[in-house]
Amino acid sequence: MPTNKNFICALVLWLSLSAVGTVSAQSAEPAPAVTLDQAVLKVRQETGGTVLSAEPRRIGRRLEYRIKVLTPAGHVKVMAVSSEASKNPASSQSTKNPPARRAGSKEKH
Predict the structure, then answer these.
(1) Cα 38 to Cα 98: distance, rounded to the nearest angstrom
(2) How far apart are CA 57 and CA 65, in angstroms?
(3) 45 to each of 35, 42, 48, how far by Cα in Å?
(4) What is the pLDDT of residues 54-88, one digit of tens each?
(5) Residues sharing a CB contact under 8 Å with residue 95, sequence separation 6 or more, in sequence order
(6) 0.90 exceeded by pTM
(7) What angle (nearest 5°) sits at the alpha carbon of residue 91, between those of residues 39 and 30?
(8) How far apart are CA 71 and CA 106, in angstroms?
(9) Which CATH fold would you assign to the domain 36-96?
């Protein structure tokens, strides 16, 4: 009877693994319409600058890419690009360390 017992154990193990595989396949998220590489390329083309860092960020159920770029003018910009193709025409951006109005001059009081 050890043969039937081994067969039953193998069958139970196979069914368990099949059920886990089915559940994980159903809960897997679809691939984003825009990849991180595509978002980096887009920002590089828009700004003409050098990308300093790029990372994906989850905001609730939404995925966006946060890309920090050094512009040719020497400014650092942080741009957010959505992973959804329909939301990319208007990528938001913020400027960190904006230049002074009269850079290089010091006011004395």
Answers:
(1) 27
(2) 6
(3) 15, 5, 5
(4) 999 999 989 999 999 999 999 999 999 999 876 65
(5) 75, 76, 77
(6) no
(7) 50
(8) 25
(9) Nuclear Transport Factor 2; Chain: A, (3.10.450)
